[in-house]
Amino acid sequence: MNILILGSGGREHALAWAVMQNPKCDRLIVAPGNAGIASVAECAALDIMNPDAVVDFAQNHSVDFVIVGPEDPLAAGVADALRAAGILCFGPSAAAARLEASKSFTKEICDAANAPTAGYAHFTDLDAAKAYVEEQGAPIVIKADGLAAGKGVVVAMDIATALDALDDMLVGAFGDAGAEVVIEEFMEGEEASYFVLSDGKTVLPIGTAQDHKRAFDGDEGPNTGGMGAYSPAPVLSDEIAAKAIAKIVQPTIDEMARRGTPYQGVLYAGFMIKDGQPRLVEYNCRFGDPECQVLMMRLGAQALDLMLACAEERLAEAKVNWADDHAITVVMASNGYPGAYEKGSVIGGLDELPEDSSNMVFHAGTKAKGEQITAVGGRVLSVTARGASLAEARKRAYAMVERIDWPEGFNRTDIGWRAL
Ligand code: AMP
Ligand code: GLY
């Protein structure tokens, strides 16, 4: 079959790598792709935010199946347009993608589904929001309602920080009319992510993961999109995972179906776990980046079968073949990330690295320049390895990092520390 993947990050490189290994895949196009993806698939220019353009492209290239990587095209209705045109698609409708696109919508669903999550209130009025913060005290969490590329959450350890965040998000007297914030109770505990497929009815877990959001070792420095991840996440034991499905995920899927907006695709649930009880932190309507890299490394070619079963509403008969393995990914980012960074530096040593079922360097922000690979993004590479233990996987990943010659980049040296 002909398959189109939308996106250009490490996540999409990992998806492409897994899909290509499956004999069902005859032709794979990734739009827009990147320099690493170009070594496993065809890359094509396409405005992936334009639903009509995506449908046209899919029809013109006889695409049988589209996998949508990032959240923005989903929120823009790309999956709706593809389904309306009769093209099989992996990814939720715009209405279902609101589970990520609107924090207040997610809270409303949790209420309706009786799913444990942080207590909250939502506001559009700055003074009312400030009064609520003063009354609740710190620590407290302030979230902008819409999609904010991971930047819309402030975990405020003191009142002043919380009030500043409200000023930023509700922009005071000059108020952006639509602006809304959710103010949440601060939850303590350990965080982990659970990735499940849903075809609208059936829920099929495909792996747990934990990421590292801070830029520097020891969880110091600014928040990033993720500097590394590993799977499985030991904190999500079988017992806690089963509770999370029964009390949070399945009731969410049932509530979405009841509303006539069934959720189809991967649901990425973030939980806070304390005293053996999971509570929902957030939902995302896509794979995490870099969490996808470790999931794909573990699932391999069967990832395509699972995504197809999801899109064809056959999840009840699907099964994951688990290997008793561990995977880890170390992100290499441009010096300065998540702030300003320079583009165009040359990355050496990539050619000599192993590329097999236990070792892969997935590309995120790279561009080919003649024979050379250059860095053009914040997060640039996801150096990913698999092993019989987390320690073994980690050793392999860092052995590859050592061999990459890129003075203009940096990485954390402690990915996986919590689990080891
Ligand atoms: P989100 O984008 O909702 O995942 O929030 C980003 C990060 O903020 C999460 O991964 C958590 O580390 C933290 N966070 C969000 N909500 C809460 C909460 N209610 N209590 C504690 N930490 C939170
Ligand atoms: N790694 C976090 C995310 O993809 O949202």
CATH fold label of the largest domain: D-amino Acid Aminotransferase, Chain A, domain 1
**CATH architecture heading of the largest domain:** 2-Layer Sandwich
Measured by DSSP, the beta-strand proportion falls in: 25-35%
- Radius of gyration equals 21 Å
Low-confidence blocks of residues: none
Structure description:
By secondary structure, the chain is of the alpha+beta class. It has 4 domains: 92 residues, Rossmann fold (3-Layer(aba) Sandwich), CATH 3.40.50.20; 55 residues, Dna Ligase, domain 1; 128 residues, D-amino Acid Aminotransferase, Chain A, domain 1; 85 residues, Glycinamide Ribonucleotide Synthetase, Chain A, domain 4 (Alpha-Beta Complex). The chain is 30% helix and 30% strand. The protein is built from 12 helices and 23 strands. Strands 10, 11, 14, 15, 16, 17, 19, 22 and 23 form a 9-stranded antiparallel β-sheet that branches. The chain has a 5-stranded parallel β-sheet with strand order 3-2-1-4-5, sandwiched between helices. Strands 6-9-7-8 form a 4-stranded antiparallel β-sheet, with helices on both faces. A hairpin with an 8-residue loop joins strand 7 and strand 8. The radius of gyration is 21 Å and the shape is globular. The mean pLDDT is 95. It binds adenosine monophosphate and glycine (GLY). The site of adenosine monophosphate has 12 residues, from strand 8, strand 9 and strand 16.
